[in-house]
Amino acid sequence: MRYFFSVFFIISYLFSYSQWQPSEYILKKRNVELKKLYDFDFQLKETEFNENYYYIIFDNKNIGYLCLRQAPSKHDIFDYMVVFDNSIKIKHIKILAYREDYGGEISARRWLSQFYKREIKDVQAISGATISVNSLKQDISKLNQEIKVWAKK
Asked: What confidence tens digit (pLDDT) does each residue in 59-72 have?
């Protein structure tokens, strides 16, 4: 029965994915994180591709890309952001909201730094967070394909 609800949740998540609107709380966390990353005044310009994807603009030049996303964990979803540089390499990842009782270790900066240094398939698992880890890896793989399409426009 528990398996049924997990499968039902993931399927319902996939159908509702395109409807996600980040809350004010998530947008505030996004801004705080970006100010830590960039110590100068920048602007975010929404893309035509997805309203949760942004160009990061400084001095009228694009200096990178920002994506706000959600991914499923075992019973809930988590929100995260990915910052890419102009060469479409991951520069920064931050879990903005993790809603599970277990698996929160994926929020650790040290663990997330693997995404900057390794291929996604080589990112190490975390005991107790297998579903969240695999979900994040799969979602970032999809995002890598998407950004190659819209960043060239």
From this structure: 999 999 999 999 99
